[in-house]
């Protein structure tokens, strides 16, 4: 990405092993993320060019001398953040805070590419028992980010059987937060979103109600649906201030706002009249999806869930710039990339 | 209270039953709260006069026709917020959000008085198996607010046996947050406070370390003590922005900031570089102390804990203005009032 609206596909040197803990993965599927749209809309030319893409699955081509448990030819999926998976933070399930970890793209080369270098490969990559032609690849790819991120929102909000849930945002993360809340047993799931085809998929994933209204109107609608109380959990999958404000308005006293949309603001209301007075908990962050892959994988493999439905368009590597455009114009929910 | 610095003791009409759910309680012990110091320092004359005091224990004098389970002569303690204790929010343990509830003082008459009207008496008051001359009265009085509030901070932060804790503030709530964290099994409790007599009491209650430094220096000290990581929980018992900033600096990735100091700000940093990036949870609010009295009472009654040690001065009702002054000048930690 060179600057806002300017994505180019170009040849770069092949990635190579730089450290003994690295692996090189040939990419089989990658995709464009909703969070890639933030720089696509705002990036200055002086900040570019940067490699893009942090979601991928593929085949191990080469491993460093300190990598064990992985070998050339293994099919693997990668979390969007690499981590050693052994440090104290990783053990507590916060791999996105691993001191040896980091995010893919700027530091490693992007995953919207033919191949990528994976630091901390042994702690990062998870082997998949499928071949390169598996029909499950789109669903398995969601384990790299959007499914694990939706799941993180629901887990951090402690969604369970007696929980009522509002999900703000009908992008891929919001829709998979619906799926996760459903899997965790939530009795009621209100999806706030305005795009009919997306909210229909949300209903398929388990939403019991859809609220198309926004702002104060949207808040009132959620309150109407819940006898004036709001919901125990609000999963915020957008990241803009109006979504935060809707979350504060829709959450029940004693409830939890769980954010997984990357906040495009730093300060927000948290005082007596917003969070403190009604004992609202604010949680969330970049999802440590590595912590969830083992838990989410079986239901993907046996077809119980089909999170790959969030992909509604497939492009080749050369067509990636068109993929960004389609997502930016909301013609596409999420774009799959086949190199 | 007439205005900042101006507290007067004066005769008012005796409280009477106004609703069938009311009771009248003759006050045996009350006290001055750290939160009373906020208006004592800032209140405009145009906002006064207001009755003061929300922490009390005493003897039931009269009950309304719809109050059962309580009778004249019962010794009782009251949470600082009254509540029906039957609604959905109360059942979930958030009595401070009860639609029929409210806070003592402005709406009910204050508890720094000879008697007070208690709305929703059946749901609010808890009987105590002691007499008016019990040596346990100071400790039992802390169940009305400061002990339950410290406990709320620790519970909301999910303090347990593997939790490291920082407590910000060496007022009564901070010190009792230390005690609560200890009771919940925390392995390490770092108390941030600068008043030696108070932090000594904090050590008695279970603090393993004391940090007298503030601001960036204080943060660095906590990080030094924790191998650079910070603590899993930070219990913030002050309410000013510098305390919030210290909490953000002292908390460990994936950790919890639990606020029980009433925030004297509305907006605060919550974005990628403060809470979101390291997956910090922000929680807390006015403590639903009613939810904790049953749990905390036995150890007070059998002398296992002695939270009443936070009282370091006793005044008569006529001396209450001097009590405010002593707390304001930090000559006194917390002032007990015997009408």
Automatic annotation (TrEMBL), chains A, B:
A Pfam family of the record is: ADH_N
* Protein keywords: Metal-binding, Zinc
Name residues in a coiled coil. Answer: none
Q: Which residues form the Alcohol dehydrogenase-like C-terminal domain?
A: 172-284
Q: Which cofactor does it need?
A: Zn(2+)
> Which segments constitute the Alcohol dehydrogenase-like N-terminal domain?
20-129
Q: Which GO terms describe its molecular function?
A: metal ion binding
- Its recorded name reads IMP dehydrogenase
């Amino acid at each position: 990405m060179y600057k806002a609206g300017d994505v180019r596909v170009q040849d770069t040197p092949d990635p190579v092993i730089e450290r003994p803990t690295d692996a090189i993965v040939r990419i089989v599927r990658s995709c464009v993320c909703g969070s890639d749209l933030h720089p696509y809309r705002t990036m200055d030319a002086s900040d570019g060019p940067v490699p893009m893409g942090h979601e991928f699955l593929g085949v191990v081509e080469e491993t460093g001398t300190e990598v064990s448990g992985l070998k050339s030819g293994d099919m693997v999926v990668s979390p969007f953040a690499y981590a050693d998976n052994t440090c104290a933070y990783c053990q507590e399930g916060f791999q996105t805070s691993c001191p040896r970890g980091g995010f893919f793209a700027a530091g490693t080369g992007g995953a919207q590419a033919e191949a990528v270098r994976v630091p901390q490969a042994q702690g990062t990559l998870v082997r998949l028992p499928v071949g390169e032609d598996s029909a499950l690849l789109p669903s398995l790819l969601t384990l790299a980010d959007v499914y694990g991120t939706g799941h993180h929102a629901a887990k951090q909000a402690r969604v369970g059987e007696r929980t009522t849930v509002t999900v703000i945002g009908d992008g891929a993360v919001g829709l998979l937060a619906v799926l996760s809340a459903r899997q965790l047993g939530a009795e009621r799931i209100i999806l706030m979103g305005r795009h009919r085809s997306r909210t229909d998929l949300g209903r398929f994933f388990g939403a019991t109600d859809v609220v198309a209204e926004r702002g104060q109107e949207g808040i009132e609608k959620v309150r109407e649906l819940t006898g004036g109380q709001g919901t125990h959990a609000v999963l915020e999958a957008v990241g803009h201030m109006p979504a935060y404000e809707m979350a504060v308005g829709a959450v029940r006293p004693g409830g939890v706002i769980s954010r997984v949309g990357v906040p495009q603001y730093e300060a927000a209301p948290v005082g007596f009249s917003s969070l403190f007075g009604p004992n609202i908990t604010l949680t969330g962050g970049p999802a440590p999806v590595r912590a969830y892959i083992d838990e989410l994988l079986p239901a993907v493999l046996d077809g119980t869930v089909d999170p790959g439905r969030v992909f509604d368009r497939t492009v080749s590597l050369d067509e990636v710039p068109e993929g960004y455009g389609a997502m930016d114009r909301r013609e596409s929910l999420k774009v799959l990339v086949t190199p």
